[in-house]
Specification:
Rossmann fold, 8 helices, 10 strands, about 30% helix, globular
């Protein structure tokens, strides 16, 4: 793993489902420590892009490098340096937050003290030993964020991480998965104001193709809203 390498390098990325191209020729470079925010309507290819970056889908064509490592050939190395946070919390419902996080800590060789530290950081200590199926949406997301950063990943992949969260939960998550974390990040969003505020690079996808790729201050007025027009 090359610490000086870009977080992400894509050159002509394509991902095909049968005859349909979900991603068609996406090319970009994201420097280490930067945040890429991805906008686009449902079906634009945002989730497919995240799944390719997460090594859950193989690219059909093109070059994909994560932290200097080529996919899919070096996916087994890349996976240990990724943190994934999606709409699904990826937690066992009958286990408590503490049990879920300790399970993942043992899988990754992370000291168990890290679990207690994270639970305290997101203010879940009092209910950390209750089954997560009893949790509110905000509590589930806080637990899932702890899971995503448990192993101190270099790159975070975040699918609308603040959706349906109240301001208090959002504030608690910022040090873990926000810009304050200092990590390289890919964030999908439907919120132009919030997305632009945290982006170093903005990607607009429509029908799997790049509609725009620019720094936030380089975007033309209406560029994001135009994505959502049929």
């Amino acid at each position: 793993m090359d610490a000086a390498a870009p977080a992400i390098e894509l050159d002509g990325l394509r991902r095909r489902y049968g005859h349909r191209l979900a991603l068609d020729g996406v090319t970009l470079t994201l420097a280490a420590g930067q945040t890429l925010v991805v906008f686009g309507p449902n079906g634009a290819g945002k989730s497919t892009l995240l799944r390719v970056l997460a090594t859950l889908l193989r690219p059909t064509d093109g070059v994909v490098r994560i932290l200097g490592e080529a996919l899919p050939e070096r996916a087994w190395i890349v996976r240990g340096h990724l943190g994934l946070l999606t709409h699904e919390p990826l937690l066992y419902g009958d286990l408590s937050a503490r049990e879920n996080l300790r399970f993942h800590a043992r899988l990754r060789g992370v000291p168990l003290q890290r679990v207690d530290d994270l639970l305290a950081e997101v203010k879940l200590e009092r209910r950390a030993d209750e089954p997560v199926h009893t949790y509110s949406r905000g509590m589930l997301q806080r637990t899932a964020a702890c899971r995503a950063v448990l192993h101190d990943p270099a790159l975070l992949l975040l699918d609308e991480p603040r959706a349906n969260l109240d301001p208090g939960a959002i504030e608690l998550l910022e040090p873990l998965v926000g810009r304050q974390s200092g990590r390289s990040r890919v964030v999908t969003s439907h919120d132009p104001a919030a997305g632009l505020a945290e982006a170093d690079l903005v990607l607009g996808l429509k029908d799997g193709r790049t509609a725009f790729l620019a720094a936030p201050d380089e975007l033309t007025p209406g560029a994001i809203t135009d994505l959502y027009r049929t």
